[in-house]
Amino acid sequence: MKKYTKISITTSPFDPETLSGFLWELSPEGIEENDYSLTLYFKENSIDPLPQVISLLKQKQEEGLFLDFRTESETFEDKNWNEEWEKSVGVIKVSDKIVICPSFKHYSPSHEEIIITIDPKMSFGTGEHQTTRLIIRLLEKHTPKNGFVLDAGTGTGVLAIASILLGATYAIGFDNDEWCLLNAQENVETNKLTEKIEIRLCEISSIPEDNFDLILANIQKNILLPIAHELKKRLRPSGKLILSGLLTTDFDAIIEKYSSIGFHLIERMDMDEWIALVLKL
Q1: CA pseudo-torsion sign 258, 259, 264, 265
Q2: How far from chain centre, in Å, is Cα 61?
Q3: In whole angstroms, what is the distance from residue 67 CA to residue 60 CA?
Q4: SS3 of 268, please?
Q5: Which residues are within 8 A (CB) of 163 and not within 5 positions of it... i.e. 6 or more apart?
Q6: 3 state SS of 11
Q7: Distances 202 to 25, 64, 93, 110 between C-alpha atoms, Å
Q8: How far apart, in whole angstroms, are the C-alpha atoms of residue 233 and residue 213?
């Protein structure tokens, strides 16, 4: 029977979506998200994956993504990991109105519920993380009817999809990760929204449109700070910006930066140690 190496990773602060985003670069067989850690699975071969994992984590630590990290490694026999993963992924009731459901799960909605079908694969944005749920709850209040939406760092495309189902006319989602491009496009097709959502592989600087009614950015602080001007340039004068991927300790730095370029805070929502902010020019 084949053997696998399991590497558990904890960081401070712990942002599983960001962590899994760059750890897929190491081509693990799978990544499992736990309450306070991520677990990577590698097929056993002649090269120990742990040094590569530690090297990448040290690089990201130097870039300021987290303060410190810890790893644990062990080897064990094979399982059907896809089957195990599907068992762990469930239906997520984001609010009274929005439910996120994997395609391989059965769910009978009430007549008032909106169902978003998401298969995350190698992207993140399943609805399990607090920041995704925070933004979707804010979208229920702030999605512009017949509006034009930009989803920065779209991941699975779940926020772009939610914005359309909540009344926007058209959305563009972009990401710099090819896995996200493929996964988001597939999720858009699954939800039958290909005529209303476009997914692009690019950075914010490559978005030529400058007339968005609403921009969504579920990205960590160290990215949201330097792209503040780029986001502002693409927003209509009366448009709104919803930011998350933020810890409560990030609040002051984000408000200071975005206030300095003309934004003012109109709503804050908290969940555990995470926050989401609605800003307006």
Answers
A1: positive
A2: 20
A3: 10
A4: strand
A5: 139, 143, 149, 151, 171, 214, 216
A6: strand
A7: 17, 23, 31, 38
A8: 12
Q: Is 216 exposed, middle or buried (0-12, 13-18, 19+ CB in 10 A)?
A: buried
One-character DSSP codes across 133-197:
HHHHHHHHHHPPTT-EEEEET-TTSHHHHHHHHTT-SEEEEEES-HHHHHHHHHHHHHTT-TTTE
> What pTM value is reported for the model?
0.72
DSSP line for 207-239: -----EEEEEEE--HHHHTTTHHHHHHTEEEEE
CA distance 246 to 275: 6
Radius of gyration of the chain (CA): 19
- In the 8-state DSSP scheme, what is residue 95? S
And the tokens for 1? 């029977």
User: Tokens 């009344």, residue?
Assistant: 167
Residues 100, 117: Cα–Cα separation, whole Å:
6
Q: Is the pLDDT of residue 124 over 60?
A: no
Residue type, 151: D
| 266 CB neighbour count, 10 Å cutoff | 12
Residue pLDDT, tens place only, 5-59: 889 999 999 988 788 888 888 888 778 888 789 999 887 776 789 999 999 999 9
Q: Are 277 and 270 in contact (CB under 8 A)?
A: no
